[in-house]
């Protein structure tokens, strides 16, 4: 093998990494080497810049733990997470589109009956989200589990709080045999991504908005259907067109209707203000 020069080093490194097993790893590493070298050549990376980048990566690892995933956040704000979601969830035009999972999902939420209040005492305007789960052919999907999680009316997730006794603003609701579902929570608020780490530091050098529009997360993983990880976004919220993680989609924007009093979708009566949002989830059958 010839000694490395500025001209041949990309080919030499790519050849070396082509020995990786399995073949897919070789493909990934070969492409990574070629694209990294092309980047360095394009911007003529200086040694100081390269050292600063290495230091940034070190700090990104150091601030991460089982509750904080700074590398995922970096991928999110670079648009890479959403690109991977889009390439791997190419549903038909009638199916509900997917969006980012985000770092605040907690596995093992409690199962909840129709209309159950998942707010666990969190303050805010009561919100009912209701609708049906169906497939792209229009047939209702009964017994589908909707795993739901959201931020509170201050924009804070359970995962960002210390010890919490009960599940807070997360639960699993099953659709009824006719596909209908109903959950009760509080109107969520848009929030800023964590800005006190290396990702925030980098964003401070830009004019990028560091906010996400108000939304509620859903995960529906029903046998026979493509897994759906998505959100609904409040139509009246700020930041819809500047979502810092590129997660907003037209089809997922839903008006939240505010009522002074009246009958709620779960059949209860309110003499105080509450809100409702109606959304149908349309699942893509597996091939
Ligand atoms: C979220 O929606 O929970 C989220 C997604 C990406 C980065 C930060 C938060
Ligand atoms: Fe979120």
From TrEMBL:
Stated name of the protein: Dioxygenase
UniProt family annotation: Belongs to the intradiol ring-cleavage dioxygenase family.
Family matches, as PANTHER family: DIOXYGENASE, PUTATIVE (AFU_ORTHOLOGUE AFUA_2G02910)-RELATED, INTRADIOL RING-CLEAVAGE DIOXYGENASES DOMAIN-CONTAINING PROTEIN-RELATED
Taxonomic lineage: Bacteria, Bacillati, Actinomycetota, Actinomycetes, Streptosporangiales
Entry keyword annotation includes Metal-binding: yes
Cofactor annotation: Fe(3+)
InterPro entries from the UniProt entry: Catechol_dOase_N (IPR007535), Intradiol_dOase_C (IPR000627), Intradiol_dOase_core (IPR015889), Intradiol_RC_Dioxygenase (IPR050770)
GO molecular function: dioxygenase activity
Residue ranges annotated for the Intradiol ring-cleavage dioxygenases domain, each copy included: 129-157
Organism: Streptomonospora arabica
Keyword vocabulary terms for this entry: Dioxygenase, Iron, Metal-binding, Oxidoreductase
């Amino acid at each position: 093998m010839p000694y490395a020069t500025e001209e041949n080093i990309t080919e030499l490194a790519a050849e070396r990494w082509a020995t990786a097993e399995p073949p897919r790893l070789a493909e990934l590493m070969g492409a990574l080497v070629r694209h990294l070298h092309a980047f360095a050549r394009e911007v003529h990376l200086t040694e100081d810049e390269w050292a600063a980048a290495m230091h940034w990566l070190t700090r990104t690892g150091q601030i991460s733990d089982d509750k904080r995933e700074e590398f995922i956040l970096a991928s999110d704000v670079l648009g890479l997470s959403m690109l991977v979601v889009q390439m791997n969830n190419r549903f038909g035009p009638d199916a509900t589109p997917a969006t980012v999972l985000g770092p605040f999902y907690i596995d093992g939420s409690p199962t909840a009956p129709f209309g159950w209040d998942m707010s666990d005492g969190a303050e805010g305007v009561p919100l009912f989200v209701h609708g049906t789960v169906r497939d792209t052919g229009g047939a209702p999907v009964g017994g589908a589990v909707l795993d739901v999680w959201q931020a509170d009316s201050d924009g804070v997730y359970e995962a960002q709080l210390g010890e919490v006794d009960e599940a807070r603003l997360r639960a699993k609701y099953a659709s009824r045999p006719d596909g209908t579902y109903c959950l009760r929570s509080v109107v969520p608020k848009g929030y800023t991504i964590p800005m006190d780490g290396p990702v925030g530091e980098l964003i401070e050098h830009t004019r990028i908005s560091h906010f996400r529009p108000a939304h509620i997360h859903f995960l529906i993983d029903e046998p026979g259907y493509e897994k759906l990880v998505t959100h609904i976004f409040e139509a009246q919220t700020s930041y819809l067109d500047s979502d810092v993680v590129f997660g907003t989609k037209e089809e997922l924007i839903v008006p939240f209707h505010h009522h002074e009093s009246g009958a709620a979708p779960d059949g209860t009566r309110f003499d105080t203000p509450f809100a409702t949002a109606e959304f149908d989830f349309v699942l893509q059958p597996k091939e």
